Amino acid sequence: MSERIKDYWNQRAFDSSGSLTATTQDIWLRRLEVASLIGMLETLRLPPGTRIADMGCGDGNTLLQLAQQFPDYHFMGFDYAPQMIESARAQLAAIGGLDGRVQFSVGDVNDPVASTGAGQLDVAMTDRCLINLETSAAQYAAIARIAECLKPGGLYLAIENFHEGQDAMNAARAALGLPEIPVRWHNHFFRETEFLDHMAPYFSGIMFHEFASAYYYATRVIYSGMCKMQGVEPDYDHEVHRLAVQLPPLGNFSPVRMAVMRKSA
């Protein structure tokens, strides 16, 4: 299965040809993720020279936008799909001016120390990366290794998917007579209580940011309900998505959420 998932992402990178659809068809979600990461990093007010790694960086779009927003930080991204890294490097070359502050390499979140070094990072990020590991055991083993890469007091920003938000979204959809949105074949979602238990040995001050909840409620519930009434299929290009990304966090109706935590000393 792991090779099948890897092949899937290599093919996605090849088919997308540098577009935002490389990691999801919902390009507005990608924009919302980037905006939320920028907002979080601005809030944290990290010092110049901060070293940030995007583990499972996909096509590098998120990391490149962060690098342009924060010129005093250094960024590295790695992904196990070579085609994704090829796309990331092509985008880096096209932007220009980021050489020396941004680098991309082929690597594996199952062994992040090999790509970043032990105790070298101020911030580690994953963005819908760990959900591509096949089991909970594999996910939590990867997180333990991510912790190894961080300096004491370093931060881990995890944008990952959780069953609780998925279930709440589907319950709201059911109230409108909409079918359940299933978990994709290549994804393994987290459960919050289990997640917190496994984070405790490595991290403290864990906070969840429900940045996508209102967006999902507006697009997957309200908009989808309207589409059902009108007898049309939902469309990611519909302008409702452009409006929904501007909504403030509200509730827990999204499988996608950000967990922010600090490595214990």
- The CATH architecture is 3-Layer(aba) Sandwich
Name the overall outline.
globular
Count of discrete structural domains: 1
> What would you call the structural class?
alpha/beta
* Count of helix runs: 10
Uncertain stretches of 5 or more adjacent residues:
none
Give the CATH H-level superfamily: Vaccinia Virus protein VP39
Largest sheet geometry: 7 strands, mixed
Beta strands, count = 7
Overall average residue pLDDT? 94
Helix content: 40-55%
Strand order of the largest sheet: 3-2-1-4-5-7-6
What pattern of helices and strands is seen along the backbone? HHEHEHEHEHEHHEHHE
| Spatial extent as radius of gyration | 18 Å
CATH topology: Rossmann fold
So what's the CATH class?
Alpha Beta
Give the strand content. 15-25%
First-to-last CA distance: 37 Å
What key attributes describe this structure?
alpha/beta; seven-stranded mixed sheet; Rossmann fold; 45% helix; 7 strands
Give an overview of the whole structure.
By secondary structure, the protein is α/β, with parallel strands linked by helices. It has one domain (2-162, 184-213, 254-263): Rossmann fold, CATH 3.40.50. The protein has ten helices and seven strands. The chain has helices at 2-16, 27-44, 61-69, 82-95, 112-116, 136-149, 163-175, 192-199, 213-230, 239-244; strands at 51-55, 74-79, 102-106, 121-127, 150-161, 203-209, 256-263. It has a seven-stranded mixed β-sheet. Strand 2, helix 4 (82-95) and strand 3 (102-106) form a beta-alpha-beta unit. Helix 1 runs parallel beside helix 4 and helix 7 (163-175) packs parallel to helix 9 (213-230). The longest helix has 18 residues, at 27-44. The model has no long low-confidence stretch (mean pLDDT 94).
